[in-house]
Design brief:
484 residues; alpha+beta; MutS, DNA mismatch repair protein, domain I; DNA polymerase, domain 1; Dna Ligase, domain 1; 4 domains; 5-stranded mixed β-sheet; 15 helices; 29% helix
Length: 484
């Protein structure tokens, strides 16, 4: 059985955020933005995949578009493959928008009728907002051809008669070979079957005949099911209950060694670990550990469990320990160069220790942002899910402390000699500037409605080093920062 999702990418997006009217996903190919996947309304407007996005918007002004995300489409197709496991155990991927199922041993569960299985599939997929075309035949090639060109079920042993009226493209041959056959007047599979095999092989190579034999069943073609994802969980059953923290930590160490070895085999690192402790009264307690970076080092991970294990109520004893990495991330092996050794990870370990007490989300860091606007030149991100970027590049010195602009009573285009700020009378001793900064006209910002800003670095006689700016279009003076 072949399942083809002709609008997989757009259906995935529209399931979460429906759109009325024409909609398309775009994908950059070379230097051109082209249409990648369209909804039915876009197809009715005459738009086609591969059309330049600029031409499509000129042809259809109401077109709404978003960039395509191929990685998310792949994950969604894998999720559909897991869902299709309810119908048969052998489910594989078929390109970027299809699935192939070997249902030869499960049709009896539907009364021996493929139509009943197909009806159930179609009902569930339609309810989920997915368009699907389904073909069933004795061979994988024939099922693919039916799903793409003549949706239906081929009678057993009648693959040849079913495929004859279909175009040669239904054989999954290359576009170059299909074009060559059309130039020779061979447009259907029946026309190709009537040609001498030697002539076809000499002109087009063995690929066309291989695809033909696979579709007719003369050459076998396997369905390769998706491999089960590795399970990162280990357990230990104890002959006698334990209750001391030291004993629990010793058991956790043995489990962690086995788990880290499995992680290393797959070049993965644990990000979230869960230690489950089952008591003799069948009650369970869990100790969850969230790491600031993916790890598989026993010596570094084990000490983080001490605080959680110390708070566990062992009751009459613990007879089972289970450790599972509930969230993992790729952690490939790195080559250690002679010029630098491996990173010690002291900062990440400190973030992990603090995160076990106050939460990893509450530990944040500043990151540089691509903007010349002072208040937009940095980002605040959780330290556990971001990397320090540096060194920070600033063409002009910036204050250590930045705050919302605070007006001061002053006039003129140059910094005032005397002014008051935060109930302090200050005197300008030295002023450096101006540095003119224009607003980002493509963004709406109420704080920059006054227009241009001329920034000055002002050293006062009282020891304050302030960052002042003047707005020439709407005259006014403001203090926005203070230097160290």
């Amino acid at each position: 059985m072949s399942l083809w999702f002709p609008r997989l990418a757009s259906d995935r997006v529209l399931r979460a955020q429906p759109v009325d009217g024409p909609f398309a996903l775009t994908l950059r190919q070379g230097n051109t933005e082209r249409l990648y996947c369209l909804n039915p309304a876009g197809l009715r407007q005459g738009l086609t995949p591969g059309m330049p996005a600029s031409d499509a918007r000129a042809f259809c002004p109401d077109l709404q578009s978003r960039p395509a995300e191929l990685s998310r489409d792949t994950r969604f197709l894998h999720a559909l493959a897991r869902w299709a496991g309810r119908y048969c155990p052998w489910v594989g991927l078929d390109g970027r928008d299809g699935l192939v199922l070997d249902v030869s041993g499960t049709v009896h569960l539907w009364g021996g009728q493929e139509s009943a299985m197909i009806a159930d599939m179609r009902q569930r997929l339609t309810r989920a907002g997915l368009a699907v075309r389904i073909g069933v035949a004795d061979t994988r090639g024939a099922a693919w051809a039916l799903a793409h060109y003549a949706e239906g079920i081929a009678p057993p042993g009648a693959a040849s008669e079913t495929l004859k009226p279909l175009p040669v493209e239904a054989l999954r041959i290359e576009a170059k070979a299909a074009l060559a056959l059309q130039r020779l007047g061979v447009r259907s599979i029946g026309d190709l079957m009537a040609l001498p095999r030697g002539t076809v092989s000499r002109r087009l190579g063995p690929g066309v005949l291989m695809r033909l034999d696979q579709a007719l069943g003369a050459r076998g073609e396997q369905v390769s099911p998706l491999a089960e994802p590795p399970h990162y969980g280990v357990r230990m059953t104890l002959p006698d209950p334990i209750g001391l923290s030291a004993d629990v930590m010793a058991g956790a160490k043995r489990l962690l060694e086995r788990l880290c070895a499995r992680l290393k085999e797959n070049e993965m690192g644990a990000r979230v670990l869960c230690l489950t402790l089952r008591r003799v009264d069948q009650e369970s307690q869990q100790v969850e550990l969230r790491l600031a970076r993916p790890l598989r080092d026993v010596a570094r991970i084990l000490p983080f469990f001490e605080r959680g294990v110390g708070q566990v109520d062992a009751g009459y004893g613990i007879d089972l320990l289970r450790l599972e990495a509930t969230q993992v991330e790729p952690l490939p092996t790195e080559q250690i160069a002679h010029m630098r050794g491996p990173e010690d990870g002291a900062l990440e370990d400190l973030i992990t220790r603090l995160g076990t007490r106050i939460g990893l989300e509450n530990i944040q860091r500043f990151l540089p942002a691509d903007s010349h606007i002072p208040e937009r030149s940095f980002l605040i991100a959780p330290a556990a899910w971001s990397r320090a970027q540096g060194p920070w590049v600033a063409l002009r010195p910036r204050p250590v402390q930045l705050f919302a602009p605070e007006p001061i009573g002053a006039t003129g285009a140059r910094p005032p000699r005397h002014f008051r700020w935060r109930r302090m009378a200050l005197t300008t001793q030295r002023a450096t500037g101006p540095e003119r900064i224009a607003p980002e006209w493509w963004l709406e910002d109420d704080g920059w409605r006054r227009g241009l800003r001329d920034y000055w670095k002002v050293d006062t006689a009282q020891g304050r080093r302030l960052w002042l700016f003047h707005t020439p279009q709407d005259p006014g003076w403001f203090v926005q920062g203070e230097f160290a």
